[in-house]
Amino acid sequence: MWSGCARTASASTKQGGKVLVLGMDGLDPKLLQKLLDAGKMPNFAKLIAKGSFSPLETSMPPQSPVAWSNFISGANPGVHQIYDFVHRDPTTMRPYLSTSRIEDKGKVIPLLPDRVKAPGLDEMYGMPNVSAEQESLRKGDQFWDALNRANVDTVMYRVPATYPPPAANSRLKLITGMGTPDLMGGYGEFTAYFEDLPSQYGDEKSVAGGRLLRLKMKDDVGRSALYGPMNPNFDTDVAHEKDTKKREKDPNYVVPPHQGEMKAEVVVQRDPDRAAVLLSIGSTSVLLNEGEFSEWLPVTLEGKGPYPGASVSAIVRAFLISARPVKIYLTPMNIDPRHPIAPVSTPTNFARDVAESIGASFWTQGIPEDSKALRSNPQVLDNAGFLKAATLLEAERRRQYLRALEDFKSGVLFFYFGQTDQLAHHFWRETDPDHPAYDPEEAKQFGDVIEKTYLDMDECLAEAMKHVDLDKDTLIIMSDHGFSSFRWGFHLNTWLRDNGYLDAPNPFKRSRLKFDDINWGATRAYGVGINGLYINVAGREKNGIVDPKDKRALMEEIAAKLMEVKREGEPAIRRIYFTKDIYPGADDKVAPDMLVGYEANYRASWDTSGGDVPNEGWFEANTEAWSGDHCIAHDVVPGVFLANRPILIDNPSLSDVAPTILGLFDVAPLKNMTGRDMFHPQAQSTGGKPSAPRVE
User: Fold this and answer.
1) What percent of the chain has pLDDT over 70?
2) DSSP structure class, residue 411
3) pTM higher than 0.85 for the full model?
4) Which domains are seen in the chain, by residue range?
């Protein structure tokens, strides 16, 4: 009986080996080829000599949650139904994160990236608490389910779009990736303490992705707090009723800041003789020298006031930017992998086991590189501080990677590297003299950051080669997309307004109208997300006005006009995709009706992604640190695919990778897979390079 219950040995590939897949987000084929030609990537060259190297057709749009969902499902968005970082609910006209949602007390809570808290009633209530349930919005099957049924062990580190973690199966170990929230339930909310916070901000300033708190120092001692999620014991209905009555009596009444939030006391003691502080957060203390990051600090946040009794644990790292005046940066509060308040792995103890194996906690937040602190105003992290944090992250990831390789004996191991994407986003301007944010002095200091990241990947490949047999095992390197410069942002909703498709009241009263300002009764089209354009269809949208039979003609009219948009004679848009044409299975209530494929150097503006309507013209010079991007026409930014085996099909795409992995174990593709087996000659296509994403 016991032998019958024992776990069977993991199946091997048809060659009798195992499969190692290294996912290097954003690895660009043109930049990679340039470094190969210069002889700077010897291990990549060795792998190519053994097998193959090809551009890999990316998703449309080429956004990470879309692209990695193509990889996971072996299919296109018409199957997995992820089309952007942000979708919109047509019944409420509210944007929400595309890959997961929170169910709290039976209500769906729309979560936006970079959400900002303000002291008004609407902003203070309805936020998720730590007991809320998470739901994945990615549809369809996952390729590891087929591997599980074939008795193939599968270990996955941080694949994007895997939060919340999938259901346990006997063969899967997985740590969630991009989309995993911080303790606040979003993409990451940092905290910074400034002794010299400008007076116009008062004691606190909320910025996209974080908050700055004034630290009042007296005799070299300052006190503040670290604020967390809402106390689950806090009764929002009762509090809302009380505050509403107070506002009725006093129109100037403002809800007290941080009402109902759990918190920990923060005490800063400055050394009078040197550039150092003793930082205490609750019962945890650490001595920091100027320019130094702490290790992971355990933090307990508690409910206070009339709703005590709740507490939640998290981990943070602290960075002493300056001792005089005091400036301290705290990373977003990460879910502690050793004591997770919500699962971040499958099985739930896998994250804890990884932490124990490397002897330390680690970033669980899906996008740990904190671009918001680099882009905030006032700026919290400069280039050097941001790079220092990224270096710590890379060292942490490398320890996990080496441990994963040591433990890899059979089946499939996937390991994700995100620095190739995030550092390209932030340091591209240092390589592009035509970028509006290019600074020659900064270029001297940071112009080689991206290249060094690629060279680090070559070292990671060298480590991989120590643990695989290139004659028997299969080693794959893949990226989800490439990169381009992001010089100019396009205000899509402003263009729609100026061309009579969108109506916003009295546009010159404010410089930036918000999504809620749109007059839906006179709006025929609107943009939300980075590439999405929607028609305000009657019967679908809450206040739709376009007759469904007129939808196609309107789309063709808008597309023709958009293709004529130029900035100083230079086209800004390469192609408009009609979603149903390229993805017939698209869910009409989820998918944008049109996808805007921008030319290189252009992208939707930051305001467009939230649905806003700026009044400063159609184009905005991108002067931010986020200077490289890939959310443009898909054929401009292909990813890469390298393997120690020859590619035997034309025009390989992201959707082909999962069927290829299954094929190595002689496992049939899942029924919804649209991809092909790249190593199987019978999958050879006959057409030329497609002008739109291939739809099988």
Assistant:
1) 91
2) S
3) yes
4) 17-185+338-482+637-683 (3.40.720.10), 190-330 (no CATH), 487-635 (no CATH)
